[in-house]
Each structure stands twice: as C-alpha cells, then as structure tokens.
Design brief:
The protein contains 16 helices and eleven strands. By secondary structure, the protein is α+β, with helices and mostly antiparallel strands. A six-stranded mixed beta sheet has the order 1-2-6-3-5-4, with helices on both faces. A five-stranded mixed beta sheet has the order 7-11-8-10-9, sandwiched between helices.
Length: 447
C-alpha cells in the first residue's frame, strides 16, 4: 500500500520542474478548524469544507519504524497491512469492499515517524470510516490467519522493493549508514528475517503499546456538521480507556564520525548511479526552512544547479536530482546522479560535490532565490485545495509540531528566509561534513 519511496521522490521532483521562476503572489482563505479531545487522550480536529460533497478522515498514529528495536523490525509497516484484515465486528477482508460499495476509497502509509490511515467517502457516509477506525484502534484481530496472510503479503512486498528493482537496497543502506546506532537505522519495511520469526505475542505487544487513543490524532475534513461528527466520535471511541504513554526512545542520532563509501553490484540496474548522503536538519528546527530552499535551488527543475551542471553543461549524467529527508528527530540530505552506461560514475560523484561547493562559494542569484520561494508557495497552497491533503496536513502539524495552526502560517517561515541564511545553512551541513556515498553499478555477469 505504500508507494516506492524513490519513485515518489523522482515523481515529486518532476512535478516541480513545471514551476517557473516567475514571481507570483498566492492568496488563500485561512483554514478554519475546531480542536477537540476525549478523556482517553484521543485528539480530534474538525475542519468543514463544503466545496464538494465528500469527507476525508485521517487517523495518524505516532508510531513508525523508529519505535521498533533491533531484531524486531518492520512491525509498524506490518500493521499498516494487518489493519485491513479483521476486527471483532468486521469480517476478514471486507473493509475494502464496504468502503468501495459506499463510493469511497482508502489507503495507508508508514514511515520512520508515523503510520497514517485515510478514508475518502461521500458526505453521507461519515459514520462508516469512524466506525472502522474505532474497530481497528482496539478491536483488531491479531490472530494466526490474519498474521500468516499479511506476513506473506509484506514479505513479498519487501522482496519486490529490494531485490526486483534497480537500486532497491538504497533506503536500507542509507538508513543504516546515515543513522548508525539509532532506531532510524533501518528502512521502514524492516528485515525479512525479523518478520519471519515474529510471533503473535510480539505483534500483540506492539499493537497494545502504540495503537491507543492517546497516541493518535483523528482529523475529519469535508462536508459535515461538526456537532454530528462529535457525537459519532464519542459514540465510537470514548469507551476505550487511556493507556500508559508509550515510551519513545532510541531516536537520538550522533554526528557521523567518518565518511562511508560502498560500491554495490546491482543485477537490476541498467545504468550506474551514485547517491551521496549528508546529515541534515530535522523537522521543527530553524535550519529546516533555509535548507529546504537551498535543496530546491540545487535540485528542482531543469534550471536547477545540478541539472544545469551535470546534465546540460558537463553531460556526465542523464539525471541529477536530490531530496531532503527531514524527520521528527533527525534528517538527511541526499544528492542523486544517474550516469551513462559507458562513462565513469566517479565523474558524476565528483561533479555533484563540486557543484554544491560552487553554489556555496559563489552564492545564489535573486532569480534562483525567488524561484525556490515560489515553489514553496505553490506547494503550500496546493496542499489546501482538497480535503484529503488538508486533513493530512492538520494531522502532521499537530503530531510533529503540536500546532495545527501552522496550516495557515508555516509559509511565513519560508518567505522570511534571507539569501544569507540559505548559504549559511548550506555551508553548515555540506562543507567538510562527513558523508555516505553509495555507488550502484550494473552487474552484467550475474544477469
């Protein structure tokens, strides 16, 4: 159910290519919302939007792969799947059917920091997703049939992501080398051997620890009446007691002590590629905003510095990109270079590093700076157009920042950044910083 992260990154980058550097001013109506909570700790946010007769719900659990321990990885991602099995009152494999027959859709995703479930249904079907979510919260069946079924599904997904696609081990290798010693040090899907040996008591323990009302935020957005929604929320969720606060530990990441470099022979890769990772700012950190602008200048669009240097000018790469991975308690900055099959990938690595140094030393133009801010404006407003992304944004602002009002004001944090701050932060994280270099080369001998 979770999209491939690299495909998502490249797709997002491609969309940004459509944004020009022409200055524009965006205005939008502030999002109005009402906060609520239950005695058991469940946090609820309601926001009414009657532009279309639809409703979206987000159930955001503050649990991800960071909450696992070595030897027991992949549990959060496993529950992303198991939650679609059976509950006390919902027969096995019927959740999808009920929602689709009601004219809605549903999905979920897991990351290092979160597990998120969403529904989008017609306006007259509000009770359905709330009832399903309440069942999944505390009445999920963690039994032999469901566990065996989803173990097979998840293990097959893990193999598809890592063994059957180019550069499939990238996220795992980046995680373990960028965040050594921390629980961010493995990919969200975890390790196959951990899932294979996991028992039903293991899964039940994880479920009882993290899938509790006081570790969740529910957002309802769309065409509904708030008083009615409050009644349904209390009807379905108030009977659950407040659990002990889950202990969150192991997140802290120490500075990288040395460079790490590895060459990976890849039977699925048609062309060589290099991925260079640096440690970056985490969410809710002042450096996050100027660094985000710097990464857009480097990587977003055909006029980006990396594309202009490596693809257009030097012609050492067929694609040059990058992404900022900012998490709740740590972060990374990754430069990406896809090389030509008949050229030395080392030239791509050197060009990526050299171009970042040149941008820091020579500075950025007013046009580049304006383009980066335009990108943030477009993203910010785009996330407010439909009820589902609006609901997810509210959940994230609450869960990560404790402040859902940022849905109306976070753009100011980008627009107030100066060029001097952008270059200062870039120098802080890239100059003389320790890095992880992963080079993938086609392995034709074993194909």
């Amino acid at each position: 159910m979770k999209k491939n992260i690299i495909k998502g990154i490249i797709t997002a980058s491609a969309l940004l290519f459509l944004i020009t550097s022409n200055s524009f001013s965006i205005s939008f109506n502030p999002i109005k919302f009402v906060r609520d909570s239950l005695p058991n700790g469940l946090q609820i946010i309601y926001t009414v939007d009657k532009t279309a007769p639809v409703i979206a719900t987000i159930m955001h659990y503050r649990v991800g792969s960071r909450d696992e321990i070595p030897g027991k990885t992949g549990y959060a991602h496993f529950f992303e799947h198991l939650m679609f099995e059976a509950t006390r009152d919902i027969p096995r494999a019927s959740i999808d059917k009920m929602v689709q027959e009601a004219g809605g859709n549903l999905n979920a995703h897991t990351s290092w920091d979160e597990t998120v479930y969403f529904f989008q249904v017609p306006a007259n079907q509000l009770k359905l997703p709330l009832w399903i979510e309440s069942q999944r919260m505390r009445l999920l069946k963690v039994d032999s049939v469901g566990v065996a079924t989803q173990k097979g599904v998840v293990r097959e997904e893990l193999k598809m992501r890592t063994l059957n696609q180019p550069y499939g081990t990238l996220i795992q290798k980046l995680s373990e080398n960028m965040f050594p010693g921390a629980t961010y040090g493995w990919a969200t899907v975890g390790f196959d051997q951990d899932l294979e040996k996991a028992t039903i008591p293991d899964f039940k323990s994880f479920y009882d620890k993290f899938y509790q009302p006081n570790n969740a935020c529910l957002v309802i957005a769309g065409d509904f009446i708030i008083d009615s929604a409050k009644k349904y929320v209390r009807q379905y969720f108030s009977t659950y007691p407040k659990a002990s606060e889950p202990e969150h530990s192991g997140y802290q990441t120490k500075p990288l002590e040395k460079d790490y470099s590895e060459i990976i022979k890849d039977t699925k890769a048609q062309v060589p590629a290099v991925f260079i990772g640096y440690r970056g700012p985490m969410l809710n950190e002042a450096d996050y905003y100027p660094m985000s602008l710097f990464m857009d200048i480097l990587t977003s669009g055909e006029s980006s510095r990396l594309n202009q240097r490596l693809v257009e000018k030097d012609r050492v790469a067929v694609n040059a990109a990058g992404f900022q991975l900012s998490l709740q308690y740590t972060g990374a900055l990754v430069l990406v270079g896809i090389g030509f099959p008949d050229k030395d990938i080392k030239d791509v690595e050197e060009a990526l590093i050299d171009e970042v140094k040149e941008v820091i030393s020579d500075g950025i133009t007013d046009e580049e700076f304006e383009k980066a801010k335009n990108i943030k404006e477009a993203q910010f407003v785009g996330d407010k157009k439909n009820v589902l992304p609006k609901a997810e944004s509210l959940a994230q602002y609450f869960s990560y920042y404790g402040n859902p009002t940022l849905i109306n004001s976070q753009l100011d944090n980008y627009l107030s950044v100066t060029k001097e701050q952008v270059l200062s932060v870039a120098k802080k994280y890239f100059s003389s910083a320790k890095k992880v270099v992963l080079t993938y080369v086609p392995d034709s001998e074993t194909k």
